Sequence to fold (500 residues):
Amino acid sequence: MKLSLKPKGIKILFLACEAAPFIKIGGLGEVMSSLPKALRELGHDARVMIPNYSSIQKEKFPMETIMEGISIPSGREEHPITCNVKSTFVEGSNTPSYFLENMEYFEQRGNVYGYDDDAARFAVFSRGALEFVRQNKEWVPDIIVASDWQGGLIPNLMKTEYANDPVISKIAVVFCIHNLHFQGMFDHNFINELDYDDGRSTIPTIDDPRMLKINFMRRGILFADVVNTVSPSYAQEITTSESGELLDQLLSERRSRLSGILNGINYVSNDPSSNPYVEYAYSVKSIKERQKNKEVLQQKFNLEKEPNTPVVAIVSRLTEQKGLDLITETIGPLLDNFKLQLIVLGSGDSRYLGFFGELEKKYPQVATHLSFDNTLPHVIYAGADIILVPSRFEPCGLTQMEAMRYGALPLVRKTGGLADSVIDYNRATNTGTGFVFQNYDKYAFFGAFVRALETYKHPSEWLAIQKRAMIADFSWKKSAKDYVSLFKKAIAFNSEENNK
Fold:
């Protein structure tokens, strides 16, 4: 297997804990698939590296070993950690992908995270990836992109332990924040003074218990050439005490290096005219065909086939972050006083699973599927009228953009990427792509919900909003161009520092 394809442009290596199609837990996995592909289409040499988990289907993604015997200090001189690197291509995108292999930390683990030694695991990945870059003679990136707390040690290591390395020192580093709330192996809201990590102390060895107290997120922000988040609004919000998760002061200090680029969505897998999960194909030009998919959706969830009743859906992780408290406080009165059907898809906290399970028993117009499913979101987007995304905070969010692509109108709170991607409907100017409320309280949510239901009673208005939503541009091509500009800034900053 050859990894010799070298388009002209910037050489970029993405280091992350997940990447589709190999393994995907959340939005990061999708980004690590779509963004490198879009960058390659622009002529840049983007590649990806993740750990080689046991759950990656090796028969589906055949790999070859390209480097063996990478040694990483463990803290016990007589027992260094040894890693190998394998590679493969992603079919269809021609993106070279690398996998760091280690039996103890990755190959014996099926999950991406959720282990007591996750801090050590991602410290191994960080060091192993940098050693691979340092020792690989065939291809050296111009820039490394590390994501979220799992990648936070990478900028730290590059600017300290590898600061004088002839290879690593020439590589710029971008740190991407997909969710500031998760900062390491501890709850940053409940940390005592003795365990506080200022981000500047020496990184502990792999087997040092102090590794559990390291704030990986703080270190990534502190040492990266530039810091990026996944939407412009989120980049602003995290510099405030309300949304900064106790890192707002540091982020404010690094404001000149902080940016926000809105994530895109996969336009191939989210195309209602060709998606195999959409029974009746349609486009913005043939949107009337969409009504047939509404009937399919109602039938699939055992709801009455009522073409003029709005179908409202929740497609989400069922957690507090997603604003579900606003829904649990208001959905009863809404179901009692308005004609609507509700579909809930997702898994998460037991209190929400219990609530929606009981709601389904009480109301025949409610249907649920309270577990993870890859197929049903497409079926729901293609048939539902309204998608609820009333998040407490939302760095970017993909649900609202994917739903709009199918003509399902989002009802969202004005925060993070939701604010950047959904335009509130204004009847007077005939503009907007969804329904937006600002304050995080049940009355604001209730008002927006009723406004959406009332607008639905006017088919011509509703159709116009649907068409605007479906043609909104959330392609990765647009975002990829912004990333290229960001990478050039990072390279310039790194060059300036090296020439001091």
